[in-house]
Design a protein that fits this description.
With 142 residues, the chain is an alpha+beta fold. It has one domain: Acid Proteases (Cathepsin D, subunit A, domain 1, Beta Barrel). 17% of the residues lie in helices and 43% in strands. It is built from four helices and ten strands. The strands form two sheets. Strands 2-3-8-4-7-6 form a six-stranded mixed beta barrel. A three-stranded antiparallel sheet has the order 1-10-9, with no helix packed on it. The chain is globular.
Length: 142
């Protein structure tokens, strides 16, 4: 079972942050290869494991950097807004130890955050998250 473990100085204050990469999804890569296009490099980013997020979210800057094209639209609700339409994208989330997960990410600004990606329950549904607060450590396995 591929996994990674991260230990932070203060997990409670910082949250479960992870240095990761976001890349185009496999269907997008195959379509680009078919027409002989250039495959973009994965984007280095900081993500947060978020059990409160129904779906995974990426910042608009990542969408631009990877040249992503929307594959759908979904309405989301945030603490300050309801029924906000957001584009969806096929992506691969690459965690430490090259743990790779295909996902559909929602594009939304993460204002006031030090992160560019939220890893939501859509991804967590395929894995095991162990949050060991007393040693400031978490493990995610798929």
């Amino acid at each position: 079972m591929p996994s990674f473990t991260t230990q932070l100085p203060n997990l409670q204050a910082l949250g479960p942050l992870v240095d990761m990469r976001v890349w185009i999804g496999t269907p997008v890569e195959e379509a680009i290869k078919k027409v002989g296009g250039k495959i973009p490099d994965p984007a280095q980013t900081t993500g947060m494991i978020d059990t409160g997020a129904t779906g995974s979210v990426i910042q608009p800057a990542l969408v631009q950097q990877l040249g992503l094209q929307p594959i759908g639209v979904v309405s989301i609700s945030t603490p300050s807004s309801d029924n906000v339409p957001c584009y969806q994208y096929s992506v691969r989330l690459i965690f430490p130890n090259n743990v790779l997960v295909e996902a559909i990410a929602i594009e939304a600004p993460l204002k006031g955050q030090q992160i560019q990606c939220l890893v939501g329950r859509d991804v967590l549904a395929h894995g095991v998250l162990v949050y060991t607060g007393y040693i400031n450590q978490f493990t995610l396995s798929f």
